[in-house]
Amino acid sequence: MTLEFEDTRASFATSRLGRVLANLGQLATAAWRSSSCRGTAERLANAWNRQPAPMRIRGSAIAVAVAAALQPFLIWLMPATVRPALPQFAYMMVAALAAAAAWRSDMIANAWPSSRLAHWLRR
Predict the structure, then answer these.
(1) Within 10 Å of residue 68's Cβ, how many Cβ atoms?
(2) Which long-range contacts (CB under 8 A, 24 or more apart) does 112-121 make?
(3) 7 and 66 within one domain
(4) Is 98 helix (H, G, I), strand (E, B) or coil?
(5) What mean pLDDT, rounded, does the chain reach?
(6) Which 8-state DSSP code applies to residue 115?
(7) pTM for the whole thing?
(8) CA dist., res. 114 & res. 104, Å (int)
């Protein structure tokens, strides 16, 4: 980092606003440690991780398919000035591929360990 950036960061950290934001971050961290939301999120994550791989693939693929299928409707609700330029066909292709992954989740789970992508990600 440059010396100017370090000076700016140090000045901000010692300013009143910087100290307030740092204290808010510490309060949020402390609150998260004892929150019921965290406990619920951990229980859901543990239950999800205990599921067999085909079930996790199927659940994720269904979520992606539903999200991709609803995206054109949500884009239609946006003001025209902020709508993404991606064609609706792209969302439909993602939804179709996700539906195919949900349909063939057993085959994907069995083929994954020997796939090139899995090998590349393990490196």
Answers:
(1) 19
(2) 112/53
(3) no
(4) helix
(5) 90
(6) S
(7) 0.66
(8) 17
